[in-house]
Amino acid sequence: MNHKFRKYNWVWVVSFIIGLSAWRYKTLVDYFEISKNLDIFAEVYRKVNQTYVNEVLPGELIQVSIDAMLKSLDPYTNYYSEAQAEEFRLHATGSYNGIGLTLSNREGKIMVTNVFKGFPADKAGILVGDQIVHVNKQEITGKKTKDLAPLLNGSPGTEMVLGVHRRGKDKEFIVMREKVLMKNVTHAQQVSDDIIYIKLNGFSFNAAKEVEASIKKHSTEKDPKGIVIDLRGNGGGLLLEAIKIVNIFIDKNKLVVNTKGRLEKENITYQTSRTPIDTNVNVAILIDNNSASASEIVAGSLQDYDRAVVVGQRSFGKGLVQKPISLSYNTQMKITVSKYFLPSGRLIQELDYRQSNSSKKNQNRASYRTKNGRTVKSGQGIMPDILVSNPKAKETLEMLRRGWLIFDFVTQLQKQYGECKIEFKMNDEDYAQFRKFINKKDSLYKSANQIRLEKLIAHAEQEKDNLELLKKLRESLEITKLLDSKKLDDYKPAIKREIEMEYVKRYWHNKGAVQNALNSDLVLEKTINILKNDSLYHKTLRQSHD
Fold this sequence. Notes:
Blueprint: H1 2-51, H2 58-71, E1 78-80, H3 85-93, E2 95-98, E3 101-106, E4 109-115, H4 120-124, E5 131-135, E6 138-139, H5 145-152, E7 159-166, E8 169-176, E9 178-181, E10 185-192, E11 195-200, H6 207-218, E12 226-230, H7 239-247, E13 255-261, E14 268-271, E15 282-287, H8 294-304, E16 309-312, E17 320-326, E18 332-341, E19 351-352, E20 360-361, E21 367-369, E22 375-377, E23 386-387, H9 391-402, H10 405-417, H11 428-440, H12 448-463, H13 467-490, H14 492-517, H15 522-532, H16 534-540
Parallel strand pairs: 11-12, 12-15, 15-16, 16-23
Antiparallel strand pairs: 1-18, 2-9, 3-4, 4-5, 5-6, 5-7, 7-8, 10-11, 13-14, 13-18, 17-18, 19-20, 21-22
């Protein structure tokens, strides 16, 4: 026995030594590769700074190189310089020190596209549609929006002077910075006698508390018949807030999501931890192609437990977990460390960024089962139980947004009508005016097919050896223009709704825009009918997605 024990013990020791040697060899090789490539990078960096024909800014050069390196991994692993500290704080907490507006670049100009109610920019009188021309007398024309963060953000209580160009006139506003805390619940109300609607716009701190408060505020003396949580356009946020929201509707100690990563410490199981508010009320979750991350955890977990009907379009498919890391010199980064897996075991993430550094579809399409035995697929985001979509209308709306056509037409309506009411609705004359407006701006209203045809025509004109082909391409272009124009009539309700929301947002902010759209929301209307019909609601939660 002792002889055999010594024999097997020696085998184990030798195996361990071989394994340890292999591990140490791999580690040494990795360290050598890292050290070698850092030396190469440093040498290239020095040579560029010393000898490049034009003067370079060392900080910008490093920023570009870091951004390019991280971009090769996935879109969510990001570096934040010291100047981007407030942007990082906003991503991490939903709050930052600044003035409360969003900006967009437009042909070298910086335009105000949203102003948050009750915060410094709103108090000072800044409006959507204003062009920012200087900050504290410093000209900013030609700069990018990201370049303005260090100028606009700063310590609460400090002042700045904003110069804006508005409808042909230049104005100046004194704006006092303060802590801007973004609200998660944009709007909540009873949309029917016993149905509560909650528009959840983010998952920063207190998101779950805001949802709970909205439910309690809008509950009547009797329990509500149904609750709708609208996650359309919600790109996600804090994981723990998503778990707390799921916990409102399912019991304590239930699995909500698992995270799995390369490192053992990133393999974490998240469960509900409190007594729920209501485990019986009918629940519906609205999602679309822009619902991502934490939104998908809420929708997917409640779907896996057959606790909510999911209505709308397939979600974005972002199931990657980022961890914030502090770096030297007050810089930060977010790095992807793991993936989300729902209670059924399915993966949320749709795109696999490991495949030749390109966004290819995840090959994991395995089938899993919900609590009631319904089939759900892995690796494709969240597929709704009730699919309501109009992808063609979506494409047309994107064409209009891309050319700033809706934005500019609303500015024209402002000049015509002035301030509007929350209930504003376009009439037929308004829409006819919009059609004329688009005809004048036809160079900005182009579908992908139209753009491709124009490129082919330009190429054919240079070749000049196939006049028949050129003629057919031009005929195809004219047909495409007619079809694109017809879409403005085919998708008139969706386009009107978009214009109405943009107009109302100018005066009544995001809350007013959401409220304005409720009466023409076909997805919500269908959802309310499901929630009110117990038989249909429970039948939906028993049907397979196959």
